[in-house]
Amino acid sequence: MAPFSLMAAGVSWLAKSFTVFSSTSVLTRCTSVLPASYINPVKCLSSQASGPPKRPLNGYMRFVLQQRPIMARQNPEIKSVDIIRKIAQQWRTLSPEQKQPFQEASLRAREQFTLDLQGYKAQLTPAQLQQQVLEKRQRLAKRKAIRQKRELTNLGKPKRPRTPFNIFMSEHFEEARGTTTPAKMKSLRDDWRNLFNHQKQVYIQLAEDDKIRYKNEMKSWEDHMVEIGREDLVRGKTLSKKKKTDAKAPSAKKATKKAKAKTTKKTAAKGKSKTTKVTTKSSSTKTV
């Protein structure tokens, strides 16, 4: 009976251990997909308890996470940017067979992500779903604005004119009171309010000059944008003015042509009248 009791105790212990291991998170499932050299176990957790599941990493990013600590240990003097460049170069030199484990792990994580996302959305109310759609639109609009700003900077769009307070702040920011930027800004606002009108007039005049600078630079920049075919970046007011001037230009040309034609007709008529007078005089002298 003793061996039988020992076997029963062993079975119960195995059952308890099985329940403990089965209650763990997705971590154990992800580590069993590939060897530890191919996967960062922490990044395989695709869901969170208090939010939507995170998108899984692609094959290249998994390779970066694997190689980055190794490369940093081998080259401690190299910057992180150069390390990423070296890893990217290594990824390009890998064969399709060497890339396959990372890509397969990414594919499995993507399938798990779709399942987790469906489960997460099923728990949300219609109001929460609508809020998520609104937040997604805001994120996309923000990204679009950042891309447009970067494009305008690359195209050399002039900077907007500064206000009198901006000029005052840029001149006195270093010696402003406070250790942090918000504290310095607050002290500068207080100093600006305490200035007399004749003291503010200097910065007001500088701001007016900056407006003139901005106007002239914007005019030349928008003309250049029209020349290179980027009318989508030109303001609507300037486009309407250009269209009006372009519409007036043909009419002005027609008016000048008409005026020239009238003057030529008048000169021709005067020439004819002079010739007729000369012929009448010559005929009268012959008759005499």
From TrEMBL:
Phylogenetic lineage: Eukaryota, Metazoa, Chordata, Craniata, Vertebrata
DNA-binding region, residues: 53-121, 158-222
Biased composition (Basic residues): 254-275
Quaternary structure (record): Monomer; binds DNA as a monomer. Homodimer. Component of the mitochondrial transcription initiation complex, composed at least of TFB2M, TFAM and POLRMT. In this complex TFAM recruits POLRMT to the promoter whereas TFB2M induces structural changes in POLRMT to enable promoter opening and trapping of the DNA non-template strand. Upon metabolic stress, forms a complex composed of FOXO3, SIRT3, TFAM and POLRMT. Interacts with TFB1M and TFB2M. Interacts with CLPX; this enhances DNA-binding.
UniProt keyword terms in alphabetical order: Activator, DNA-binding, Mitochondrion, Mitochondrion nucleoid, Nucleus, Phosphoprotein, Repeat, Signal, Transcription, Transcription regulation, Transit peptide
Cellular component aspect of the GO annotation: mitochondrial nucleoid; nucleus
Transmembrane segments: none
Compartment annotation: Mitochondrion matrix, Mitochondrion nucleoid
Name of this protein: Transcription factor A, mitochondrial
Alphabetized Pfam families for the sequence: HMG_box (PF00505), HMG_box_2 (PF09011)
Organism of provenance: Larimichthys crocea (Large yellow croaker)
